[in-house]
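A protein record in our archive is deliberately plain, so that people and models can read it alike. The tokens are whole numbers drawn from a learned vocabulary of local backbone shapes. For reference, a complete record is included directly beneath this paragraph.
>
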Amino acid sequence: MKKILNLSLGIVISCIMLYFVFRKINFDDVIHYISSAKVIYLLFSIILGIILLVVRSYRWKIMLNEYKSFKLQNFFESTVLGL
């Protein structure tokens, strides 16, 4: 019962916070800005973001490798989830 209450409370708080974050955003403007952006810049930023995630994951692997050996994929998944 306590797990269900905690999960429900977390979902409600998350929905309220998302409402406050997105209530003043005009999504028509967002779509316009994204569609007018140059594709090469979008691709570059996506590729750079992925490279930075891999580097950050590798850094975690190096730091924690002396305690236990993990695959880089485990750290990558954890890093992506932590965003």
In short: The radius of gyration is 19 Å. The mean pLDDT is 91. The longest helix spans residues 39-64.
